Amino acid sequence: MTFLSYLVSGLSLGSIYAIIALGYTMVYGIAKMLNFAHGDVIMIGGYMSFVATAHLGWPPLASVLLAMLVCTVLGVVIEQLAYKPLRAAPSLAVLITAIGVSYFLQNAALLIWSSNPKSFTSVVRLPSLKLFDGQLTISSVALVTILACVAIIIGLTFIISKTKIGKAMRAVSEDKAAAQLMGINVNQTISVTFAIGSALAAIAGVLLCSAYPILMPTTGAMPGIKAFTAAVFGGIGSIPGAFWGGLLLGLIEIFGKAYISTQLSDAIVFSILILVLLVRPTGLMGRKISEKV
Amino acid sequence: MRTTRFRILSLVLALGLFVLAGCSAGPTSTTAGTTTAKPAAAIKIGGIGPLTGGAAVYGSSVANGAKIALEEVNALGGLQFELKFEDDEHDAEKSVNAYNSLKDWGMQILCGTVTTTPGIAVSAESFKDRIFTLTPSASSTSVIEGKDNVFQMCFTDPNQGIASAQYIAENKLGSKIAIIYNNADAYSTGIYEKFISEAAGKNLQVVSTTTFTDDTANDFNVQLTAAKNAGADLIFLPIYYQPASLILTQADAMSYEPKFFGVDGMDGILTMENFNTDLAEGVMLLTPFAADATEARTVAFVAKYQAAYNEVPNQFAADGYDCIYAIYEACKKAGITADMDAAAICDKMIAAFTAADFNIDGLTGENMTWAATGEVAKAPKGMVIEDGAYVGMQGGN
Amino acid sequence: MNNLAKMVPVPSRAIIPERDLGSTPILEVSHLGISFGGLNAVEDFNIIVGRTEIAGLIGPNGAGKTTVFNLLTKVYQPTRGAILLDGKDTAGMSTMQINQAGIARTFQNIRLFQALSVEDNVKIGLHNQFKYSTLNAILRLPRFWDAERKAHDQALELLSIFNMEHMANDTAGSLPYGAQRRLEIVRALATRPSLLLLDEPAAGMNPSETEALMANIIKIRDMFQIAIMLIEHDMRLVMGICEGIAVLNYGKIIAKGTPEEIQANPAVIEAYLGQKKEA
Amino acid sequence: MKLTKTGQKRLVSNSITYGMVVLAFILVQIVDSTGHLTSSLRGQLVPICAYIVMAVSLNLTVGVLGELSLGHAGFMSLGAFSGVIVSLGLRDMVGAGPLRLLAALLVGAVIAGLFGFVVGVPALRLRGDYLAIVTLAFGEIIKNVINTIYVGIGPDGLRVSMSDQASLGLGETGTVILRGPMGAVGVDKLASFGAGIILVLITLFIVLNLVHSRSGRAIMAVRDNRIAAESVGISITRYKLTAFIISAALAGAAGALYALNYSTVVARKFDFNTSILVLVFVVLGGIGNIRGSIIAAAVLTVLPEMLRAFNDYRMLAYAIILILVMLTSNNDRLKQLRWRFIARFRRGTPQQEVDHE
After folding, report:
1. pLDDT by residue (tens digit) across B33-58?
2. How many helices (H) and strands (E) does chain D have?
């Protein structure tokens, strides 16, 4: 029974990591950049939903939509202002810029919403699910999170494989120059990717704050790093990789805490990550890098 | 690329110099970090604490509380103070930088630092420089150890750990105790260590000890399940209120209802914006300050604070407020004037603080006195949360 | 030129036996093969190269010529077959060990150390000729100075083969295309190989440059007394200097022989004509 | 030895680099002796030196070896804590501060170098972002583990525990050096600006000499073209490891210098953000450009202090400056403008401005 409850916690935490990791991995797959500001977009999404429900009295679903809208716009604006001019620049330059954007968002949030933590009211307002005569309690947020994650991965897979923009995304991620020759608008495709990634970040932000209801300007930082880890774990650039990487990371974190040590849970998570990468150098689902000689 | 970066660097340098020029030319006291610059004869008090980063809430609260006290004191028309509060991002290096920058400004008395690790680094410097230091909330004994010029406004961590264990034992609050603490935090670990050694002497049975770090402070299901499985009927939380609020929420979600016992870091949980105070029902804590106490001094402070910052003050704000008053009283007693140098002030202030007849009534305690070690003596109040408000616990001292 | 005399005696062409039939061949490859994802890229590749032979490997695009080079230098580990270098089995060797054992190569798409100077590129080729430890380097002990001086002299000597000494301080990436190809050959030579593999050395060169290259390839063989195997599309070069030629199509050798024999071979003609039709 | 043209240029360039550091030291001494040095700047001198060593050593990994490391602070941490343990452990035996500092720096470097080897052997098999994530993970593991370690000196030598202070069993006479999350407390402030400058010079000596040697060329060959490097008989693993270990060891020395400048040091200080901070120095100073790293580390350490006048907007301003600098330095139109500007002054040698990145 305890095991099952850990399993649910792990899946729920893992689902959040997975949704964030999807944003990382999509942007990486297409723009070949590590968007370290992604975690902070999550935080902005959380604040938006918070402001809508707690200050404006909006219903939960409307607040989620507002968060998605704001984050989408924010993601595209960041891309246009900060990343687009650097398309030809070395990747480290883009990385540093992304870190600059991350600092900017955190400190802007600090000025707007102050450093006082806000208590987030869960957008899922259903009672917990009680199983086995109440021995196992599953919170509704955990269930919604897991379901949302599965829905997102299905939806995303559909978009990528079936729609026109999805095909454009795949083409751009394979070969930017060739895609351009085939008449694909590369800049637009990258913008759309940022938009989708940021909308996902908003959902992740709302779910993160619903499951762990505390909101601070630094809320997104650590989940951001963990999700980045998850994305690499699964094989960066791969969408199913981000999904499985996120889930596994969440499970390892919870089970590591439960059965090995709460003190060393981070060390356990990261050690397993290193071990996995040693066995599979490009992550669980990553494509093998082959060099043309 | 070589030459490229050079131009860039000169650009950065130029920007930096521009900023520097801007700061020396413009008035330094118009921005938020500095208040109430009196034209003449003001004693310069420096403040240091985190205003940005993850610990910003503590620093901002102290700064805000101190500012309110400063305005009140200056309005009395006697001694005049000027306060400059610098950010240290809860980092020892940045804190020493802030301290040095305050020295350049001409700081005569230091009200800082807010957090422990920077406090240890800075108090070593202020001890060497002979600048009187009163920390509002850096609670580790290492901050004051071996430094005659450093005093604390808050309890030391060991004190809290011992007091909590005694309180729980004397009032028979729980038979099986679980502890969840932050093993990456000096404050939390400090209290935990003393609690556990004191608990052994008091025959308290600790059945589960689990930890978390700042990086894993979101999911507490494992810790709570461990406590529940061990049959704990009381969970001791020597942690700050943000993770505590998560623990309460998650315990509720898993229908686990032990007693929760917190320390002063727990204060603030009721006033956290949008927090469902029902979850904190029955939570006990030892704290020197409660924002909804009915005593006149607190009521006035809370009203002023809310008017100025649109937030309910927490214990840190109260500590900051009390610090300024303690400094004010000591200055009056020691006959300190703005033209004295920091070292002279330091000796007089030490004498004043340790004098037998020096005691302060503040927001965080009545009749506070200081030992030569720098430790404060005041009584922690046992509080229990009932109907979303603190109520004094029966049997409390 | 007098510097060169120190390195190796320059023999006259006359003393080089036609296919040095008397001594053990430098390279003996038998039944070499590799599969990528079930597809046989190279199959049953057999070849023998004499100690001072200039051998040609030709064939239509995609025939697997570069794959053979990658197999010989262990960039790919062969799935089947054996490679004997100077009579010794090379199984289990890495690219690095192969080079130390005596095979050096150039690349079809030039792989120079673009950001470094021409001289440094050659010195990197001399890596295993003038050794000293990292500690020697950091502390600048006498051994460092001694080895660096020798490496410098030797690098300039090698560059002089192609009259490139004056470019020593230029950045490799800034050289014209042809010079980059020549630099790659110099770098490979610096490793003191007994077998030099040249992957399309004349690609992108005009006829007069190719002419000079042909002379230089022979000069290198004569000077260093080594075997050279080259992949090339320029038939004038191949037929002009190669003593033995192997023709590859779809990963298999379809013909072997002297230039004259190859030119007359109907299978070769068909392979080339067939390819032309497709193109 | 007769110098070649490249050799001469190198000598001049290296002399400028060394000279710059020595000059900065002399300048600070002069300003200090006339009483014009602000406390703020004086307080930052040692951390600046430590960050310069960090930046130069990370540049060895990122610029010269061409591998992205996001866990450089982990090595700094190892150096810091082993340095502190050594300096406190020797307190009763060795009286002289400089000697203890030297011992701390050496042990810090050796321990960090050792871990550089342990991490490097498996990690360097990976490439690009996968290597980066392993270094990141390593930094986090170090932080997490040091947070749970307690070290003390009792009558019978060093004692280590993973649970708590009490379990060290030191008794009355022992001193606790490392207290888990509280870190090391009561550290002697042995570091000085002079020692910092010497460490910077030694670092430069090591890195510059390494780069301009057989080993350095091999490392750069691995960076520029792995397959070509192998094809000329260079051992990829060996030279990757050489660079990585030297880089780690120097970071360890920097960590020891840094830690011995404050009376306390905690593991949390050396987290991901510190690794990123040093990476920012390297990128802004120019990847592979040692002198740029020195300047960037110094300027960007001082900059946030200068920005104190902005108060609440300080870190926001820092973020904006960071973004703007990256945008302007990578803007093609501005670049061309600059080339034209430079060409006017250096007519005749435009090919030297070839951009390698």
Report:
1. 444 444 457 999 999 999 988 788 89
2. 13, 5
pTM metric for this prediction: 0.90
Mutate to test the interface with D, among B120, B133, B212, B239 (most CBs of D within 10 A): B120
Interchain contact, A262 vs B212, CB within 8 Å: yes
Type of residue at B14: A
> Distance between CA atoms of D262 and D187, rounded to whole angstroms?
7
Strands D157-161 and D175-179: unpaired
Q: How far is CA B277 from the centre of its chain?
A: 23
CA distance D145 to chain B (A): 10
Q: What is the pLDDT of residue D172?
A: 67
Of C10 and A282, the one with more pLDDT: A282
Q: Nearest residue on chain B to D331, judged by CA atoms? A: B4
Pick A181 or C104 by higher pLDDT. C104
Q: Is residue D300 part of a domain?
A: no
Domain covering C1-102+193-279 in this structure, CATH number: 3.40.50.300
Question: Structural domain of residue A142, as residue ranges?
Answer: 17-221
Neighbours of chain C (3+ CB pairs under 8 A): A, D
CA distance D95 to D190: 12
**Greater pLDDT, B157 or D23:** D23
Beta strand ranges found along B289-362 (DSSP E) = 360-362
Lowest mean pLDDT among A1-10, A106-115, C188-197, D173-182: D173-182
How many domains would you assign to chain D? 1
- pLDDT tens figures, D219-275: 999 999 999 999 999 999 999 999 999 999 999 999 999 999 999 999 989 998 899
| Interchain CB distance below 8 Å, B12 and D42 | no
Q: Measured between CB atoms, which of D62, D227, D312 is closest to A111?
A: D312
B92 CB-contact burial (10 Å; exposed 0-12 / middle 13-18 / buried 19+): buried
What's B77's DSSP letter?
A: S
- Measured in degrees and rounded to the nearest 5, phi and psi for residue C88 equal -105, 140
Residue D192: inside a domain: yes
CA–CA dist B158, B140 (Å, integer): 8
Beta carbons of B51 and B32 less than 8 angstroms apart:
no
Report the mean per-residue pLDDT for chain C. Answer: 86
| Amino acid B312: pLDDT | 85
Ranges in chain A, pLDDT < 70? 134, 287-293
On the CB side of B106, how many CA atoms lie within 13 Å of its CA? 12
Interface test with B, best of A8, A92, A110, A115 (most B CBs within 10 A): A115
Does any domain span residue A230? no
Query: Domain residues of chain C, as ranges?
Result: 1-102+193-279, 110-192
- The ranges assigned to domains in chain B are 34-155+296-379, 158-287
Higher pLDDT pick, C136 / D347: C136
Please say if the pLDDT value at position D58 is more than 90: yes
> Which of 2.40.50.140, 3.40.640.10, 3.40.50.2300, 3.40.50.970 is the CATH number of B34-155+296-379?
3.40.50.2300
Q: What percent of chain D has pLDDT over 70?
A: 93
Q: Give the whole-angstrom CA distance, residue C57 versus residue C69.
A: 10
- Name the residue range of residue D66's domain: 13-147+183-269
CA distances from C153 to B273, B395, C156, D328 (A): 76, 92, 5, 44
Residue in B292, B350, B356 with CA at minimum distance from that of residue B318: B292
Query: For B158-287, CATH number?
Result: 3.40.50.2300
Is there a cis peptide before residue B113, judged by omega within 30 degrees of 0?
yes
> Which pLDDT does position B378 carry in this prediction?
85
Touching check for A267 and chain D: CB below 8 Å?
A: yes
Question: Hey, what are D184's tokens?
Answer: 């090391």
Spatial CA neighbour of B102 closest among B47, B52, B151, B153: B47
Q: Which residue has the tokens 């200097």?
A: C241
Hunting for tokens 């093969």 — which residue is that? Answer: C33
